[in-house]
Amino acid sequence: MALLEIENLSVSYGSIRALRGISLKVEPGEIVTLIGGNGAGKSTTLRTISGLLSPQEGQILFEGKPIACKSPHSIAANRLIHVPEGRGIFANLTVEENLRLGAYCRSDTNEIRQDYEHALELFPRVKERLWQLAGTLSGGEQQMVAIARALLARPKLLMLDEPSLGLAPQIVQLIFQVIRKINAGGTTILLVEQNANLALQVAHRAYVLEVGKIEMSGPAAELANSDDIRKAYLGGH
Ligand code: ATP
Fold it and tell me: Pfam families, from UniProt (predicted)?
């Protein structure tokens, strides 16, 4: 059974049709990426999966169960965790307080402590800054805190929206190495990226979204070699 399955999903903002009947699957253990240009509907897809938007049509199944009408809180409690574009960091709280909020649905104290230590091992820079106010971190450090905080929810599916956005290339490399490690540790990932090059390097499979429709899908390596994809998204000729 797929971990996440979306069937014929349509979402509108008033009269703007942002998603026009998209279908996709994420199997356990995969990194799946959703790539596409500005305004293609990538963030809308993640926001609908995490319960922030209601679809006009279609189904979302998580572990085989419909979640399209559930609240964001109950979806997160099922360990489907969304790191939004812009990161959603609480600027006036310390890094440590931000991290602890990731575990707010949990009461398994020992496991929370393990996940906390593990997140800090993945991001040593976060560990050095536990007492700093999160709003004073650099953009890259805030992205690390946002991902580390998500790990405190022990996600079954981790959805990352544009983790590379606005960051220096070196920091982006570091964050993508950690994304690989998180997946190697058994966490399934749905990654939204405008940086198709990077996303196709790290993902197993990919979907290409254009103006609210899936235009292409397949193994990431195959799409990275496709002439159409190279021309449209990879700066190729
Ligand atoms: P980007 O990478 O630029 O964020 P995206 O692929 O994530 O692009 P979405 O943000 O999902 O795209 O937007 C899809 C469409 O829905 C766009 O036409 C956008 O203008 C529209 N849209 C997004 N959010 C809203 C909103 N709150 N109100 C009205 N229209 C919206």
Answer: ABC_tran
Pocket-forming residues, ligand 1, beta carbon under 6 Å: 13, 16, 18, 36, 38-44, 194
pTM of the model: 0.95
Q: Count Cβ atoms within 10 A of the Cβ of residue 72 and give its class: 0-12 exposed, 13-18 middle, 19 or more buried.
A: middle
Residue 44 Cα to ligand 1 midpoint, Å, equals 6
The full set of domain ranges for the chain reads 23-41+71-233
56-107 pLDDT, tens digit per residue, is 999 999 999 999 989 999 999 999 999 998 888 999 999 999 999 999 888 8
| 94 CA → ligand 1 middle, Å | 31
Residue holding tokens 């690989």?
180
